[in-house]
Amino acid sequence: MLLVKIIEAMRPAQWTKNFFLFAALVFARKFFDWPSFLKVAEAFLLYCLLTGSLYLFNDFMDLKEDRVHPVKSRRPLASGAVSPGLALIIFSVGSLVSLLWALALNWPFFLITAVYFLLQVAYSLKFKHIVILDIFVLASGFVIRVAAGGLVINVPLSSWLLICTSLLALFIGMSKRRHELVILEDKAPNHRPILKEYSPYLLDQMISVVTASTVIAYCLYTISPETVEKFGTRNLIYSSIFVLYGIFRYLYLVHQKGSGGNPEELVIKDKPLLIDIILWAFSIFLILYF
Length: 290
Description:
The relative contact order is 0.10. The chain has 15 helices and no strands. By secondary structure, the chain is an all-alpha fold.
């Protein structure tokens, strides 16, 4: 059925990334504030429509490369189940509706959503062909989601939260590139030309930098005077054990199991990692709200 294939092409499994919109709500201790929760939930739905539309555009631009990929060749556009013309129409309509919807929520939220849209389009057209910048643009999507979640409910954005998100997003993006490079081997440049600029050794060095930085930044955030004063507790540091385990587990999956190509699926399918994330979230709620 065509409708099913269209929805599949919009990659609903990857909409889990949009849960980053709730980060500012949680750390502003407004999760149980019903009007604020509903507004972020609305922003979440908006971003699901927008990101789904952008995936159609990205797949349209990557059509030639995806057809030779062992997995991506089964995507609706690459397999021919959804025509390129229809994909462009849905992308245009979905993007327009999303941006108008963002404008209806508030001006700052619209601006940052427009920046996200332009960055993703620029990525599909040009930035994905520029070494290192391609990973930074991918990572910026997570940071913008966190910032957008704060702007939609008019709460101050924590610089620490944005730093930690940036580093974590870079870690995920680099791991994704490493997975593509390793699994495709000599065919990697045919699928994604920028991969010829990378090597597993280079990416491993970059991953080492951001993993260490992520753990250090998170620990510093939990014990910073600003954080202690804001939340009235020093106990947030205890949640860092889950962050450390999660990063180590992810590294294990990337290096020993050859995973990392689809982070959103990995989080759901790997039970130890999923349990760790749930325990981290539980510890945050316990410390901040009770």
